[in-house]
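Example 3.2
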Amino acid sequence: MAQVPQTFFDALAVRTWCSLALRALGRAREEIDAINVYPVADGDTGTNLYLTLESAATAVEAVFAGYETGRAEPSLGDAARAMAHGALIGARGNSGTILAQLLRGMAQVLAGAGETSAAARADGPALRLALRRAADSARQAVAHPVEGTVLTVASAAADAAEEAGDDCRTVARAAYEGARAALAATPDQLGVLRRAGVVDAGGRGLVSVLGALVEAVTGEAVREPAGSAGSVSGAGPAESVGRGTEPACQGEPGDDRGEAGGPAFEVIYLLEADDAAVARLRARLDALGDSLVVVGGDGLWNVHVHVDDAGAAVEAGVEAGRPYRIRITHFGPGEPHPGRERPSGAPAQRAVVAVVPGEGLAGLYGEAGATTVLARPGEPPASGELVQALRRAHAHEVVLLPNDAELRHTAGAAAEQARTEGIRVALIPTRSAVQGIAALAVHEPRRRFDEDVVQMTAAAGATRYAEVVVAERQSWTTAGICQAGDVLGLIDGDVAVIGTDVTATARTVLDRMLQSGGELVTLVVGDEAPETVAAHLEARVRESYLAVDTVVYRGGRQGALLLIGVE
């Protein structure tokens, strides 16, 4: 549906832009992943950009949802700050971290323009200034900026916008065209791109985001470029995208060192710290590794670095403040970055790889023969971790169970990367570990691969899932407003029950799930759940639901107090 053109930028424009940008990155994600050869050829730039933007768009939607019951609408400042904060806390990888800073730079200007304008909106000159602030702040966030990357594309967009008129539509179009031209030139600036025959993946993603900006203010869609170096400036089809088989440069962008010189780990975390502590942290991390990007401000930062000593990078964060949502990705077994080597010995015909939320389930899945990837609370695995697990499974055919709706794009990127290496991968979109248990229960390696996948998919799809968690903050939900500390019962991903007692809430959730029937109840109990909750629910099923069996597993430290599955 065509968008309504606007000659100014307000809260609705921010919302529209985020939605369109998310859609554009969703379309381009696989293409961008495929051309990701720099700074690490781990095939996840498109996915990381998508997940970062998804977090920004979700934060903006939450702001608008908070105003639905009244006549007032959020201000430009509200929407812009939400966009920036959402991107900051959800930033993934090197590219996502830089995108978060670009959005933060724009938000600083847009929010200020909205608060000083009687109409609470920004005009063309404000949008032009926002693009300049974005490019400059992103460049400052990178320890060693190099041309031929997303930073170059952002600067070119800002330069072009400065030569445009004072209308928002003119400014947005100029920025997009400037970025598009700069993207086409990136192979001439960075040798690894030229040798692979591709443009910079992060820059390609930014062009999609700026194309969405044009559509948000003009109502007209733009033609997006393809990723191969030869087709960016023309109208080449997306199918012509180069795969980028050249090993990525390791170290800072522009440093053409070989793969042997690169660090072994990517470390990312959110950090609560003051400016002085962050300045010291930058210096320490810069000495530890490369690809250092620190973005944020006002006491909250997102830290990204590639290092050989992941523990030292985390310890540096502890000394600077309070790090959390720590994600550590190993780039490859026994070598610094992703390689094609697999374990010795003949590969198996088929294997299962599953993401699990706790140590208890990791043991359960492992006993069933699955290769597991542990997703600790607040630390979802990156696509690089999933690719390594697919390799580690050492099989010709692999079934991948992400067990989390939010991992669908990450898992998709990992599957695509593994397929380029000759592994046949089937991704079953399980949204909970209990759906994964159901799929694993019917897994039969002796069946034909397609038949096995169909049976596993059917078993997962026939399993309703729920979880009982504690609310971290006040928020709007589908069941009403919850307060921090409330017990929430989520059924199939939506909040269905708000309570104060874990056992009572779990019982209500289970009753609602069994109203539509069921033969087997699976309970996965977390370490922080009351000791008696499983026994109480077992008794409830035994007394009230004839011919329904119950099985209980200990999930360990899994984030949710309780996972429930009904088949």
